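Hey, resending since the last one bounced:
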Amino acid sequence: MVWSTGTVGRHAIVGIDAHPDLELVGVWTSTPDKAGQDAGVLAGLDRDLGVSATTDADALLALRPDCILHAAMTDDRVFESIGDLTGFVRAGVNVVSSGPVILAYPYGTLPDDTVTQIAAAAVAGGASLHVNGIDPGFANDVLPLALTSLSQRIERVTVSEIADYSTYYQPTVMGELFGFGKPIDEPALLWYPNVLSLAWGPVVRAIAAGLGVTLDEPLLEEVEHRPAPRDISTVSVDIPAGTRGAVRFRVIGTVAGVPRVVLQHVTRTAADTEPDWPTPSDGAGCYRVEITGEPVMRLEFTHHGANGDHNVSGMIVTAQRLINAIPAVVAAEPGIVTALDLPLITGRGLVQQ
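The structure tokens again:
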């Protein structure tokens, strides 16, 4: 079952339809105009799938699906969505979700009693909850931790997203969370103290947990804003010259005052701006893992869709990480399941015959 038909949800519908071991049994939408439309139409396929979208959440839960792939927007309703996911697992339905990202590794970020309540609801329902994606997710938990298996000595692990967001269609994220197109001195949600640690701190903590180190508290945050050098038009917002046009931030986990795990984002709204900041080798976007120690290692992970755009493929890889994890999450012990708890997840069954 797919919960939401937006930028991630529609790719989830396509991915589930293409997976030989999965069957789509229902689709929820928050948009009344989409209710009654076939899932194949909503996903942009050239055929019907025989499953109609509905706004009736109770009717979908009554179907007792093995798993809900939850792809609804959560960045602007974190605690409401935690309530939604908790309700699903309490009702006995396993969940894989792209958010809220704080649940990717909630330990040390959410209050202990909140984590306990979510886990208790899952255990009571006999279901598992797994939140992941690409970032926060695979690019800054599984990928860097796998690379550390080659290390003899580790001094620092740095994971970065370096991307041009001009083709990223999320007006709320771009305009309200990042504040692109607004005066640099005007606050936006992400730049309030501790918000970055709530959103990306979980992956810093996940890496630390995977390496068996205890971080100092609190995590450190660094942010640098740059003005747009000219008028820039993106698919989400227009950015007048002089307003916020690029942001670089870090969430830093230290041990005894020494930085050991660093999460970095370099976010541009035009690929040719801020040449002094880190740039991807392909000019569009990448995820980069850098490990200093013995040996020194650097891994750059790029992706793009069939149309060449990395923001479209970013939605696809987010959906597919969740889809391919479904069998393992369903088989897991009830409770909160993080990337550290899962076996190796592969694209089993997806090689075209």
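The longest helix spans residues 310-331.

Sorry for the duplicate.
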